[in-house]
Every structure is written in structure tokens, then in C-alpha cells.
Design a protein that fits this description.
Blueprint: E1 13-22, E2 25-30, E3 36-41, E4 62-71, E5 76-80, H1 86-112, H2 117-132, H3 135-144, H4 146-152, H5 157-168, E6 174-183, H6 189-203, E7 208-215, E8 218-225, H7 228-247, E9 252-256
Parallel strand pairs: 3-5
Antiparallel strand pairs: 1-2, 1-4, 2-3, 4-5, 6-8, 6-9, 7-8
Helix pairs in contact: 1-2, 1-5, 2-3, 3-4, 3-5, 6-7
Length: about 260
């Protein structure tokens, strides 16, 4: 992402480095946009009254801001720190780190092909960015869906790209969860519940499934898989097996899924 040129768009989240802090605001550089300068007015640093701005920002700090406005003629970029929540910050920072890693991996691809990085971008990097928006997504796709990737792109570079991707990038995973409510009035009810959950896990047949108690009679089932449909199929198999086991012993069991 450090190769991005031009100006960001309104509403975009950007990674910034704080360069100087004044009483009226903070000047930052945008890491993904050739270190272009942006400004955060003190009113956009935090919600409520800011008595000491350095309680919120300091020189050298990495922060995530939301773009409030861009003056393309003057190159002025107005930013907001308070408009970014913790989840957005973590997600954006991780995306930025992933893209920095992907740029290093592309350098490895270029080195193995005995070409310079600029030539690598011209040959296939720019095409990948257009198709996937980020280089890291391209590397992930090469690992997760190699046949589709090779069907969409051709050239001598693909073998080297696939090689580097497999060595350095894990396939993306989908995670879903649900709550099993399980109870039994039998004298050995807890044992029946435990056995039902064990049977459910066994039905996963080696898939990535975790069941934890979140307070009896509630048990959280977490499934990780390469694709959403696969994760849902695993969830169905595991929970149906557990429910069937307990209900066959006169217990009660139901799966509840929270809406996202």
C-alpha cells in the first residue's frame, strides 16, 4: 500500500504518523500516500473537550484517521481521529501490516525472477492490484484458490509468485460460531451433555472446531474453515450430532445463532 499515489478519498481510513503536535491540532503524514501531510484539528482529536492534546496524540505515534476532506488543488487533507473506533483501528492496522508484508514478498518474487521491483509491478503487480485491490489479497488467493488464480493470470511469473505465496502466506479462514443450549434432568445429566458434546466434536472429523462452556447450560461452538459454506456444513454436522445424542436420552438441546 505504500505504492499508492495521488490523494485519499473522503471517508477513507488511513494510517498516519504524527509529526508535530500543537495546541490547535496535530500534523501527520499519510504512510500509504507517499507521506503526504494531513491535519487533525483539536476538535477532531477526541470526543468532548480536549484539555491536553498530548494526552491523545504524540510525535512519532502511528494512528488511524478518517479522511474528512481533501482539497485537491492545494493538497490539503483534513482528518479525524475521534471518528475511528478501536475495531476499525485494529482492522486497518492489520491490513496495512499485511500489505507491507506483501510488498516485501513481491520483492522476493522479483529477486527470484532476476528483475527489479518496478519491472515486477509493470509486468503483473499493477494487474494484481487492479483485480484484488491489495497485493496481500492476491497472495492469499494464490494460496487458497490456486486453480482459479492460474486460470485468471498467465505468464512465467505465476510459478514464482505461487511458490513465494505458499512459502509465506496462510490461506484465509472463515470463522463462525453459535450457542448450544443443552440440559438434562436425568441423574447423570451432566455426563449425558458431556458425551453429546464429545460426539459432536468427533463428527467434525478433524475439522477446526472448538466447544467451550460459557455458563451452563450454554456452550459456544466455534468453527474455522477455508470457505463460509464449508464452515456452515461443519457447524451443522457437529451441532446436529450433539443435539441428536442428547435428545435421544430425553434431554433438551437447541442451537442459537446470533445475528451479525
Amino acid at each position: 500500500m505504500s505504492r499508492v499515489r495521488g490523494l485519499p478519498e473522503n471517508g477513507e481510513l488511513v494510517v498516519c504518523t504524527v509529526k508535530s503536535v500543537k495546541n490547535f491540532g496535530a500534523f501527520v503524514t499519510l504512510d500509504e500516500y507517499d507521506d503526504r501531510e494531513g491535519f487533525i484539528h483539536v476538535r477532531d482529536v477526541a470526543t468532548g473537550w480536549v484539555k491536553y492534546i498530548r494526552d491523545f496524540v504524540r510525535e512519532g505515534q502511528k494512528i488511524v484517521c478518517k479522511v474528512l476532506g481533501v482539497d485537491s488543488t492545494k493538497g490539503h487533507i483534513d482528518l479525524s481521529l475521534k471518528s475511528v473506533n478501536e475495531h476499525q483501528k485494529r482492522e486497518k492496522i492489520q491490513q496495512w501490516k499485511n500489505e507491507k508484508k506483501a510488498e516485501k514478498l513481491l520483492e522476493i518474487v522479483a529477486e527470484r525472477m532476476n528483475i527489479d521491483v518496478d519491472k515486477a509491478y509493470k509486468q503483473f503487480g499493477e494487474e494484481l492490484l487492479e483485480a484484488y485491490e491489495t497485493l496481500y489479497s492476491a497472495f492469499e488467493s494464490a494460496v487458497a484458490y490456486p486453480e482459479d488464480f492460474l486460470a485468471d493470470f498467465d505468464g512465467k511469473w505465476t510459478d514464482t509468485f505461487m511458490e513465494v505465496a505458499k512459502e509465506n502466506v496462510a490461506a484465509p479462514m472463515v470463522q463462525i460460531d453459535g450457542i448450544l443450549e443443552m440440559s438434562s434432568s436425568a441423574p447423570n445429566g451432566m455426563e449425558l451433555v458431556k458425551n453429546a458434546l464429545i460426539e459432536g466434536l468427533a463428527a467434525a472429523d478433524g475439522a477446526s472446531v472448538e466447544i467451550t462452556c460459557v455458563g451452563c447450560p450454554r456452550y459456544r461452538v466455534v468453527v474455522n474453515a477455508a470457505e463460509y459454506k464449508e464452515a456452515e456444513d461443519i457447524m451443522k454436522t457437529v451441532t446436529n450430532t450433539a443435539i441428536s445424542s442428547l435428545t435421544s436420552n430425553n434431554g433438551t438441546a437447541v442451537l442459537k445463532r446470533e445475528s451479525k
